[in-house]
Design brief:
Elements lengths: L14 H8 L15 H30 L5 H25 L5 H17 L7 H27 L4 H50 L10 H6 L7 H22 L1 H7 L4 H24 L6 H20 L4 H15 L3 H11 L9 H16 L9 H30 L2
Helix pairs in contact: 2-3, 2-5, 2-6, 3-5, 3-14, 4-5, 4-6, 6-10, 6-13, 8-11, 8-13, 8-14, 8-15, 9-10, 10-12, 11-12, 11-13, 11-15, 14-15
């Protein structure tokens, strides 16, 4: 069973999904977008999937390093945090640099370097080398993730493509997370797992050459020249950070609260696996039909629903309540992200703010467990869920206040 401690951010393309997504887009094209081919979109999502693959299998690989005596249990959490934070930083840098031209060459080079950092596990026999190589890998993962961020953000339907990407990139994570402990790691050890990541990075390097330069229409570039970092835009980004901090904080203790509730370990493992797969369902639901909902209202009410689910997990008095609440937690996890993309584009049409969204999300997921830990006592983790629920409430309030501020500013002469 995967420990939820390192699953702070769980986020290929299929022809069927691609066709499904195109249905109805004629009435949902957002201004300022680029009409890319599905080859370009699919390639960017493949690169992005390679970048985020570590998030789904990190618990398994780092657990294997612990079993082999290469890191301690304390270092396991520290090493995971280093890589996720580096990924957040790299995604912000990559999204900025890849807009400046030569996107194919830059992503291909970044992918090759990422393959090298993953292969460096064979020479990383000390904790210091592991921290250096995984930190560098995180930066490079974030950097090439910028390809998916740039292509999706500048598309004509960024909200729906974002939902599709979030759903599809979770599927190979779940498949590999299952295969590694069952059939791969027992035969080849942790090094073999990182070698698979190196191979996936090489595939991303090849896919990078299908990417094309970002050339918005001249009228669009003139109309959206320069990001407008208003207090309202910054407030929305703060709301995103708070919401994801709540998610990371609650998910970190989902297994521990089950132990306190004396829920059978096999049921806990099943509940967490179902929660992961329902992330896919939630993201697909947004890409398929939920984008028709009033996204501003859903953005405000969504965190309140998530906060309610978090409290249900904390106060579960039976296995069925725990299972249902944990499943619902996964369903909501990724569902609001595409709607937040749409909200930010409406407030800041240059889309520069949107391209920081991934970094903000990863940052929130990273600090959430730390914030929730202040509510944990000996043998009692319920306080962590109270803090997480409070963060959800603050997120909802922040979204509402920021939207109100934006409306007032647009009415001024």
């Amino acid at each position: 069973m995967q420990s939820p401690h390192e699953q702070n951010a769980s986020v290929g393309v299929s022809a069927v999904a691609a066709v499904a997504l195109t249905q109805g887009t004629q009435t949902e094209i957002l201004p300022g977008g680029i009409r890319d081919s599905w080859t370009v979109i699919g390639s960017s999502m493949l690169v992005g999937t390679a970048a985020l693959m570590i998030l789904g299998i990190q618990p398994v690989l780092l657990g294997a390093l612990t079993e082999e005596g290469r890191i301690s249990e304390t270092m396991l959490g520290q090493l995971a945090t280093v890589e996720v934070l580096a990924l957040a930083i790299g995604s912000a840098v990559g999204a900025y640099l890849l807009q400046k031209g030569k996107i194919a060459a830059k992503v291909a080079l970044g992918s090759l370097l990422l393959a090298a950092m993953n292969a460096a596990i064979y020479a990383a026999h000390t904790p210091v080398l592991l921290f250096l190589t995984r930190g560098a890998a995180g930066l490079l993962e974030g950097y090439i993730l910028g390809a998916a961020i740039v292509v999706i953000t500048h598309s004509t339907s960024p909200d729906r493509l974002n939902g599709l990407f979030l759903a599809l990139q979770t599927i190979p994570q779940a498949m590999l997370a299952y295969a590694l402990p069952v059939s791969i790691l027992p035969r080849v050890g942790a090094d073999g797992g990182f070698a698979i990541l190196a191979g996936i990075a090489l595939v991303a390097a090849v896919a990078a050459f299908a990417l094309t330069e970002r050339h918005p229409p001249a009228a669009v570039k003139h109309a959206t020249a320069g990001a407008v970092w208003t207090p309202a835009v910054l407030g929305i980004l703060l709301g995103v950070a708070l919401q994801n901090a709540a998610i990371g904080g609650a998910w970190n203790y989902a297994e521990r609260i089950a132990v306190e509730l004396h829920i059978a370990p096999d049921l806990v493992g099943t509940a967490l696996a179902v929660s992961l797969m329902l992330q896919v369902v939630g993201a697909f639901a947004v890409a398929w039909f939920a984008w028709r909902l009033p996204f501003r209202l859903v953005t405000i009410l969504g965190p309140l629903c998530q906060g309610t689910v978090i409290m249900l997990i904390a106060t579960a008095n039976s296995s069925s309540v725990y299972f249902g609440a944990t499943a619902a937690f996964g369903l909501f996890w990724l569902a609001l992200n595409p709607l937040q993309v749409r909200l930010l584009i409406g407030m800041e049409p240059s889309r520069q703010a949107v391209m920081t969204g991934t970094a903000v999300t990863l940052f929130g997921l990273s600090i959430g467990p730390f914030l929730s830990s202040f509510g944990v006592g000996p043998g009692n983790v319920r306080g962590a869920f109270l803090i997480a629920a409070g963060l959800m409430l603050l997120s909802s309030i922040t979204f509402a206040v920021s939207m109100a501020a934006h409306r007032r500013s647009t009415r001024l002469p």
